[in-house]
Amino acid sequence: MTQQAEFNQGLIDFLQSSPSPAHAVKAMVRQLEQAGYQALNEGDEWQLEPSQGYWTTRGDRSLVAFRLGDKPVAEGGVRMIGAHTDSPCLKVKPKAELLRQGCLQLGVEVYGGVLMHPWFDRDLSLAGQVHFRDETGKLTAALLDVAKPIAIIPSLAIHLNREANKSSEINAQLHLPPILGLATDDHSGDNAKTSPALVFRCLLADWLRDEGHSVGEVVDYDLCFYDTQPPALVGLNQEFISSARLDNLLSCYTGLQALLAADTLATDSPQAATSLLVCNDHEEVGSASAIGAEGPFLESVLRRLGGEEQKYQRMMARSMLISCDNAHAIHPNYADKHDENHGPKINAGPVIKVNANQRYATSSETSALFTSFCDMAKVPYQHFVVRSDMGCGSTIGPIAATKLGVRVVDVGAPQWSMHSIRETAGTQDAWYLAQALQAFISTWDGQ
Length: 447
Hints:
- With 447 residues, this protein is α/β, with parallel strands linked by helices.
- The chain has helices at 3-16, 21-34, 73-76, 172-175, 199-210, 246-262, 297-306, 309-317, 364-377, 397-404, 429-443; strands spanning 38-39, 53-58, 62-67, 78-84, 89-100, 103-111, 124-133, 139-145, 179-182, 217-227, 232-234, 240-243, 274-280, 320-324, 327-328, 351-353, 382-384, 407-412, 414-416, 423-426.
- A nine-stranded mixed sheet has the order 1-2-3-13-4-14-18-16-17, sandwiched between helices.
- Strand 19 (414-416) and strand 20 (423-426) form a beta hairpin.
- Helix 6 crosses helix 11 (429-443) and helix 7 (297-306) crosses helix 8 (309-317).
- Its EC number is 3.4.11.-.
């Protein structure tokens, strides 16, 4: 198996093991610990050693990992890679149980800019965090992945909506609650344990007990539905990877592999500079939270690294962040949705994203720097600019640039079907991006 094939298999395994942001962070922590990175608690005083790797989390859904260089951070700056752990999905409401027409359903809230139609007729499961009291009354938390298909959102037959292929509006409140099964006598009546208001929490408690947890009472949860179809290599020559959550777990995985690989590839050793990976939750809903990119998580870590204000400012002046978030590949059936000179192609290299209105933080300087990293790694690169008559999405890049005053370039692997329940990217592009990121971490001198 080639290095690229091993890389893609690792990506597939990571996607499969990460049905929620908390699971993605857990999977990344596992790899960091295997590489010798040590855990840090934000509530403790940090004693950091040169050349040692560390990681810390917030809310178990956002992660910062870094390896200190031998060079003082005020002199070498920090080489940063940023991504996000969340993806658009359907989240379960606090009081979710619905009994309608003899069916047990769960009410859901749309998280982020979900492309709704593809969620119908999929085999769905649940994953995320559950907070519960154990049998002694102690409040604790655990990750849950039900793994098996437990729900479905059936489409309405075309016989009952003859205009479905022309125009089919989806009402998130009425049309998206998944069906878990048919209501039974256990789901009604006066028994408190089987009343509709407690059915779901009883199910959660049973699933957690099956995983070895001592559960007295489920108190709350942060759970999302996901498609149980596993990732796959697709195409006559397996040139595509098809999976849920490529936006943006592909970038999380790619950034992590670049960080780990660059540990042994630094070309300016023994004066290696500090390298860092940040993966935030809540990007898909604006990043405004304690664990999102607009919150203080990354800055608080950087200030600990920088020390007193003068050194911190010198460090930031020598730092750069590559914001990695997948880009829109040109769709052969909808080519007119792209600017004719800026239509990135699958398997043609990472995409530099540019927007004059600062929806992306790329500048001509940071774009030129990134192209040099691609040249060093001998990988191709592309540019994306949205059509002038269309709106433009955004990333954590402009947020980081605004909060930190750091140089930022927005890049990403090209993909199709962004924000669908199942997305498609190229089997070469994540590898290309990883090579460029490794060149950045291993060679950039902070100038």
